[in-house]
Design brief:
It catalyses: uridine(38/39/40) in tRNA = pseudouridine(38/39/40) in tRNA. The chain is of the alpha+beta class. The protein is built from five helices and ten strands; from the N terminus they run E-H-E-E-H-E-E-E-H-E-E-E-H-H-E. The protein has two domains: about 100 residues, Alpha-Beta Plaits (2-Layer Sandwich); about 140 residues, Alpha-Beta Plaits.
Length: about 270
């Protein structure tokens, strides 16, 4: 028996989130179905984070225990073959120690939220961004975001369905980046912390969008945070702009070149 860590990318459109559900398609079910083609009766996969319905990932991490020996490259190739047309792909794969946990060994999770800020629709980005037609002031958004960095009681930005034991979290970074577009700008909001509350990032983004539109001054974010009241929060932003971008561990897990690669023909 060996434990394997998988780095995953997926399009969350059409999925009810990461976690498997009885009556709705999930990313976990798609992956476990592919694994069952290789090893029926495996114990299932554990992920670093449970993304919600419609949320995407470019760097989700999961682990699985398999009895059959595999080289990482061969397992990655076999899984991707069975994941064809699911919107899920294995980007990297590694053999890890038996005590490695994709969830509990993680020391940092990084999320990206993408806003297309222009008047015209964004047909090529449908389902992958939040389009806002009125101009947003990214400097004001950053000024508001700065009030959230550090260790706080984030009750205001916590879903009423959140099951975390405490609303107190440490936010390491909340950076608002503006990327010029021909007819507007793309706003990328980068968020880093060890762990997050349910809907915390999307709640941040909805509040900052109000600041960027001029409806609220940046200082109001501090008042909202101090209120510790969910009703003070801005609207929760839609899920399609959110990406689980990276999960970090104390030691590097992935090399970028899974072992067991076939020889390079160009090497002679």
């Amino acid at each position: 028996m060996a434990r394997y860590a998988l780095k995953l990318e997926y399009d969350g459109t059409g999925y009810a989130g990461w976690q498997k559900q009885a009556d709705h398609p999930s990313v976990q079910t798609a992956l476990e179905t592919a694994l069952s083609k290789l090893e029926p009766g495996h114990a299932g996969v554990t992920a670093a984070g449970r993304t919600d319905a419609g949320v995407h990932a470019t760097g989700q991490v999961a682990h699985v225990d398999l009895a059959r020996p595999w080289t990482p490259f061969r397992l990655m190739e076999a899984l991707n073959a069975h994941l064809k047309n699911t919107g899920v792909a294995v980007l990297d794969l590694a053999i890890v120690p038996d005590d490695f946990s994709a969830r509990f060994s993680a020391v940092e999770r990084q999320y990206l939220y993408r806003i297309i800020n222009r008047r015209s629709p964004a047909p090529l980005e449908a389902g992958r961004v939040w389009r806002i037609g009125h101009r947003l002031d990214t400097e004001a958004m950053q000024a508001g975001a700065n009030h959230l960095i550090g260790r706080h009681d984030f009750t205001t930005f916590r879903s009423t369905l959140c099951q975390a034991a405490s609303p107190v979290k440490t936010l390491d970074a909340l950076d608002v980046e503006a990327v010029p577009l021909a007819q507007g700008q793309e706003i990328r909001i980068h968020v880093r912390a060890r762990s997050f509350l349910h809907n915390q990032v999307r709640s941040f983004v909805g509040t900052l969008a109000r600041v960027g539109s001029g409806s609220w001054p940046p200082e109001k974010v501090a008042e909202i945070l101090a209120a510790r009241d969910r009703r003070a929060c801005g609207p929760v932003s839609p899920p399609q702009g959110l990406y689980l971008a990276e999960v970090r561990y104390p030691d590097p897990v992935f090399s970028g070149f899974p072992s067991g690669d076939p020889p390079d023909p160009a090497a002679g």
